[in-house]
Specification:
Helix content is 65%, strand content 7%. The chain is an alpha/beta fold. It folds into 2 domains: 289 residues, no CATH class; 90 residues, Periplasmic binding protein-like II (D-Maltodextrin-Binding Protein, domain 2). α2 packs antiparallel against α6 and α6 packs antiparallel against α11.
């Protein structure tokens, strides 16, 4: 263990002193904090300046019944043709666009929105929904129902859905408010963070082995330690760098969650009086909850990195240059990429069979499971996933070391997968 400790210290000191390490360590918390508050920001400031839309209504049904909102106001202009309006109400006029409605509304292309700048799907859907509602209301009038207006007014209902996590007590006061939007963002952030760390630090192991092998430094190092000790020292040394960086990130993010975010957004959220905003702010300011997420992140990063780093070390020992490593690197990357693809489906249903089983398979579990954690999955699933992951890691370095002990002494030969299989089978 003493020789492994020396190698760990060497790898750690060499990397934490680099300017790139310091810069990334300081900048990443800003990115993470920004992603945490993104849902609240989007809910608070999702609307832009009010847009003006000129309405040319040939049907005589729509224009008078359009409702203005904080996002849009309507200007009726029936005397002009569509082409005349396009010439007059162009981009220089300050008008956002022209809403043209033909004589028969339900005909193809009878309702057109001609804009002077880019539009959004939400804006278009809101206008379409208004027109649909007006047409439906007009059709209801044809049935000659008494007190139709009063009936429609009485049945109009707006629902503000509040979501809580059931703690088994049956008391609403003790239940935790939650937001699927925030869970979605946190899942993406955590999953992508783990993905980047595995790739970044795994490639660091690969590059380090290749560089030292090419310069024949490794040839001298193995005279004082075994190939297994050298491989594990490199892996654990770089793992220590990753954990140090994550620890600093966690401290800075938790500090921002405790002091910065509440001070900046509490007043705006209270003024908005929106249950989703309240739930979002509650989630991102709950330091205990965020600390538990970071704890899970550390455990899965450590297990996932150690697993993949062993493969990267083996691949690095089998080649003489970065270019030659691509044939092995691409295979190692396949389960990582599959994990990202599966992670995206997790957000539709965190408890689906594919999400569950991908969380148990060690080569995909780190990324998929950490993306599921914010959705409140059972603790036993996390524990089982970690056990399987770490048991797999115990076996992987053994196989990787059999490749490593032969590969580091192989120079000038382009090795294949068959060569690696032969090395593994050697006693």
């Amino acid at each position: 263990m003493g020789k492994i400790g020396i190698i760990i210290a060497r790898e750690f000191n060499e990397r934490v002193r680099k300017k790139s390490f310091i810069i990334v360590t300081l900048l990443m918390p800003l990115f993470m904090t920004g992603m945490m508050i993104a849902p609240t920001l989007m809910m608070l400031y999702s609307t832009s300046d009010q847009k003006q839309v000129v309405v040319i209504d040939r049907s005589g049904l729509i224009a008078d019944n359009l409702c203005e909102t904080p996002e849009v106001t309507f200007i009726r202009e029936d005397r002009m043709s569509k082409s005349e309006a396009c010439n007059i109400y162009n981009e220089e006029s300050g008008i956002f666009g022209i809403l043209y409605i033909g004589e028969t509304i339900e005909d193809r292309d009878s309702v057109q929105l001609i804009t002077n700048s880019s539009s959004s799907m939400m804006f278009e859907q809101n206008i379409a929904a208004q027109i649909e509602s007006i047409v439906e209301h007009d059709k209801l009038k044809a049935y000659d129902i008494d007190n139709l207006e009063e009936i429609l007014a009485s049945i109009e209902t707006n629902i503000d859905l509040a979501t809580y996590v059931n703690d088994g007590s049956g008391e609403e006061e003790s239940m935790e408010s939650t937001s699927s939007g925030v869970n979605y963002i946190l899942g993406i952030v955590l999953g992508m963070m783990l993905y980047m760390i595995i790739i970044l630090y795994g490639q660091m192991v690969l590059t380090s082995v290749i560089e030292e092998k090419s310069s024949r430094v490794i040839d001298g190092m193995v005279t004082s330690c075994t190939p297994f000790q050298l491989m594990m020292g490199k892996i654990l040394g770089i793992a220590a760098v990753a954990l140090t960086q994550i620890g600093i990130w966690a401290l800075l993010v938790l500090s921002a969650s405790k002091f910065l975010v509440p001070a900046v957004f509490s007043a705006d959220v209270a003024a908005a009086n929106d249950m989703m905003l309240v739930a979002a702010l509650g989630t991102i300011t709950d330091t205990g909850y965020l600390a538990s997420l970071f704890a899970c992140l550390v455990l899965f990063i450590l297990g996932g990195f150690l697993l993949y780093a062993s493969l990267y070390a083996a691949a690095g020992s089998a080649v003489d240059s970065i270019q030659d490593s691509q044939q092995f690197n691409s295979i190692i990357m396949i389960p990582i990429i599959i994990s990202i693809i599966i992670m995206m489906s997790v957000f539709n249903d965190p408890n689906s069979p594919i999400a569950f089983w991908s969380s148990m398979i060690p080569f995909t579990s780190p990324i998929v499971m950490i993306a599921r954690v914010p959705f409140g999955i059972p603790v036993w699933e996390i524990i089982v996933s970690l056990i399987v992951l770490y048991l797999t890691f115990i076996a992987t370095p053994y196989l990787a070391s059999k490749i490593f002990r032969v590969g580091i002494f192989m120079h000038g030969k382009r090795n294949t997968w068959r060569d690696l299989w032969v090395w593994i089978r050697e006693k």
